[in-house]
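Recall that a protein's primary structure is simply its ordered list of amino acids. Everything else, from secondary elements to tertiary packing, is in principle encoded there. The following example makes that idea concrete.
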Amino acid sequence: MRTQVGIVGAGPAGTMLAHLLARAGVDSVVIETRSREYVQERVRAGVLEQGTCDLMDAAGVGARMRREGLVHHGIELRFGGRGHRIDLSDLTGGRSIMIYPQREVVKDLTDARVSAGLPIYFEAEDVRVGDVDGDHPEILFIHDGFEHRVDCDFVAGCDGFHGVCREAIPRAALTIYERVYPFAWLGILAEVAPSSDELIYCSHERGFALHSMRSPSLTRLYLQCDPREAIENWPDDRIWRELQTRFATESDWRLAEGPIVQKGITPMRSFVAEPMRHGRLFLAGDAAHIVPPTGAKGLNLAVADVKAMAAAFAEFYRSGRREPLDNYSSVCLRRVWKVQRFSWWMTSMLHRFPDETPFDWRRQQAELDYVIGSRAAATSLAENYVGLPFDL
């Protein structure tokens, strides 16, 4: 088959790119190794920046998000047994964030594509990309027992950290930057109403904790733990005891408990592959970069990538201009590194490091105290948290 842009991966990056291209009149084919049910149900972060919400609206897929999502105008920093609210909207001229799970974003985008009758292949096997250095790149795969080849002008690698697209680039052509953190997050999903109307980022001498939510009846909670921990060592009672300890305050606030319906341990790393383009292969999202989850930036960074990519492809097919394609990597990486900086800063400020000294601990507490006491420092946090402009 023949198309203009072949997209590998039907996560948020791939499906958003396909949707933006369709609205610009650019043909694409999406190939995904997982089932439709898998990509629409896998549990991922659910904090959307203002810019991501605006793009969902502009792309015509934001109606359900606006009905069901939870708008937040602030977050809480909790340390020393006290909570301190950061008023995001006041500090950023009215901007906010939205709690709307990633799987719901993917549902909205895949449903829109399927309803439009546009090509999307789930459960593809043996996916390979070829000739990305030449003028006629191709995507090869097996679907329903038959071999397929997609001849395209460009390939968009939106297939995640473990996908095949980044591996198709010669190692000598990539520079990899990486930091692996000496801790992980133990995350749970509990069937209980959230104990706070907004997210709580908690620094405690026993480690970081985060109170988030997925809906008015589902609470998402995280604990810093050793990355070598086995989830079997964390029965429900132990998890709740540790959460109660870390979230404890001088007030009468108490964390509500309920049945735990999902739990797991997630390692933390920072990762960037440069450049994000090689020949006619363009990388986006986790295929090009990973951020620690502290700043809630992974999905939003992927959306920023494909917004730039879609605009570059649309301009090429409209006018023949190649400058936006040539500038794609540098434009995206400028924002990527700013987001990496913010995610590292949030992570370093809130987590306990195994080799830290009493000096380090007091310095962290002083950093938090400075953020809540300085409007300039709080504004810097707020501007980054609600999202930097997509066109940085």
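The chain has a mean pLDDT of 96. The first strand starts at residue 5 and ends at 8.
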